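Replying to the earlier thread about multi-chain prediction with a worked example.

Input:
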Amino acid sequence: MSQPLLEVRNLRTYLTVNGQDIKAVNGINFSIGKGETFCLVGESGSGKSISALSVMRLLPQGIHSHPSGEILFNGRDLLQLDDSAIRAIRGSQIAMIFQEPMTSLNPVMTIGDQIIEAIQLHQAGISHEEAAAQTIKALEQVQLFNSQERLKSYPHQLSGGQRQRVMIAMALACKPQLLIADEPTTALDVTVQAEILKLMRKLQDETGMSMLFITHDFGVVAQMAHQVGVMYQGNLIETGATGAILRHPQQAYTRQLLAAVPENMVRTALIGSANQAGNEPEANQPASLLTINQLKVWFPIKKGIFRKTVDFVRAVDDVSLTIQQGQIVAVVGESGCGKTTLGRAVLQLEKPTSGSVKLDNQELTGLSSQELRLLRRKMQIAFQDPQSSLNPRLLIETALTEPMKVHRIGINQEERIELAGQILESVQLKREFLWRYPHEFSGGQRQRIGLARALVLNPEFIVCDEITSALDVSVQAEILQLLLKIRQERNLTLLFITHNIGVVEYLSDRTVVMHNGKIVEHGATTQVCGTPQHPYTQKLLAAVPRLMR
Amino acid sequence: MINNEISHESFSARIWRKTLGGVGVKLGLAWVIFLVFAAVFAPFLANSMPLLMSKNGVISAPVFNYLSQEDVWVLAVFFLALFVFRLKIGLGKRVLVYVLGGFLCAILVSLWIKPPVLIIYDDFRSARFTDVDWRIMPPIPYAPSDYLRDLGSKGLEAPLATDGALHLMGTEENGADVLSRMIHACRISLSIGFISSGIALVIGVIVGGLMGYFSGIVDMLGMRLVEIFEDIPTLFLLLTFVAFFGRSLYMMMVIIGVTGWSGYARYVRTEFLKLRKQDFVQAAVASGLPLTSILFRHMLPNGVAPLLVAASFGVAGAILSEATLSFLGLGVVDAPSWGQMLDQAVKSSTFNWWMALFPGGAIFMTVFSYNLIGEAFRDAIDPKLSRNAGVN
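Result:
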């Protein structure tokens, strides 16, 4: 290979926060050849985004410094260029796309105007008509059809995947040599992600551009990268060809990270779940704990002065499901398929429009809130977002003992505190954490506390609503193992809502696939994921980026 | 990676620390604390009678014989506040103890304290009080309504005028000491700010909280009520009431409070609408907690911050309302207030700068202080702003 397009030599980026230097990037070296894709992979806070922003020189002035390092782009050191020179390179030679397609487009400008502006900025003297023609071409290139009309649409009129396509079109409009993509598919559904990744590979083949691709998902790495760099605490601990790293990682951290990918975890856990499946002959089925019958949750769409109901959003539409004692049932589906609403409707946090939910043969729908309060003990919920799931004003002790007090568990406060301490220990946290506030914990710890809060009432049934999707893969692995342990200790029944097929395969006994509010496929996990019957399930499974194919 | 060291302070402790971090807010707070001190101890700071005197070997404190019911109540409530602050109980209980204690004090004071109906200030300069072994006078030895006739005061003496007695801020047209009147006027400004904002807060939190939590039809009706109250011109309502029912400070407080809650209700409503669907509130519902706990333990503390900001601006607004009314000559008659002193300054035949500058400056400083405190609060609550304001 001739001279690389981008060469980063011993780059250090320090951020100054409150007078302290944080070594966000601590001496990394890598290079990207022409037409090549280099993937930076690592967990949150490992410095991968900071590295990319350093290349773009997009870090905020005044709080960052580069004590050492060179970023050679076509042989020129980007760190030495002045502002006007770097601006000439940004956009026209190096372009960037971001994670969040909602916020990276200007909501008050049509997408046409935004792309035309970018083109006119970088190609001096181009007329508006020519730029518009180029824009249409660019939109067609990213397979956004009806591009003539799309020019006039505003970002909110597009779906997440369409917006990301617009971002790519905008980035590629000036035919850059290097595209930096910072987690471009993380916010997208798995089927949309598959399309976007395919599109990016196709565009790379057509234009011969290089890509610096940042992701935390090894499945995406396996699909996209020629070269991989694994980042950990600001250091690039391992680089190499994708296949070599994925199959024969040299560093302990890389091995650990790869082992935490649910797809790899399955191999050790399969034995357990296979046993369970074997011990479960049809004749000897355990009692069913939860029975959902023709459950519907419809949200009315109201229009006009008199707020007449014109139609309904059928979030959950005619769902019937039986969950046996001690089972983990996973509900999978893409965003908007109604899986979260289903979880909330089961707990009566969302009032069902019709249908019935029976827990232990006790009908839950139609009960008054007073009657429900007594039953709430048996069923609990754990949430996705570690930021908002705990009351920031209350000590963990209060958050855990207050429900116990209401349900008369424990004779006095001392006993309840003792119980709360035991439960914290059972989710592998320290007893002293009772006397802290939520903001003192990391995301993974907060999710454990959220689980502890669900467990204090000693419920029979817990709805886990995407509890691992905001977490890093190694923390996710710990939480999943913890869930299996708790399930075994307490014979718990879980309704596990997720969009991550890997997690489903690792954790659940049965799988329910939802699409547009309806259950499209339902059965044992090995069956649903191994030999899917319904075309939607097949499409979903095919879209999952796998490590090995 | 950025938060290696985790602080162990609670959310509210952090907000307080950030609020108090700036220089402006410290100055503002210092001024307000100074005002509180002046308001509580006004009879001991500016009065015509000796604080302590010894006559023929008998030590007495004449000032205590002349304390009014109001003076005693204010003192009692002040020390009750200090006591409640030291109690180790929850905030809700503290407020309850304080309010009940305040009422109890008011009843006891009205039963026990019987001050003389008429005070003749000239007496204190007669031999009965001056021919003593020793005596300690207040720092400003003039009561606010002591017109110093026996001293031959002609009124309208400029500050530090050397003929006759020393007056740091001069005298007004009747001959009373301006500084003494300023000190006693603190009370009206402080109490009208706190009490009327307190009334508005209570109504606002209840109405706004119900609107936010129940939403739907309750919200719709509540918002219409808010809009009705927003359309009432407070000043003209006050004028009308003064015209019909005469002048009363308490009536003013109630009217300003009852018409001023709509802003608070909007804030609480918005916060509650937002919090209602938060995961931790849903978790509280899923744990079967009672409604009072969900509303007041899980929702209100998380939504109270913008309210406090609004309240500190509201206090400033109430002070201005009173000053405006007094300036128009419709304020309280029997006690001095800053607005009323401004009115005096304008009405006297010649312009006397000391009569306008000092009360005007005090109003300005007080309103400015509350605004500084309110802004610091707002910046502390908003993490983005707190970084910019340098109060990290």
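Confidence is low (pLDDT under 50) at residues 267-283 of chain A.

Feel free to reuse this layout for your own posts.
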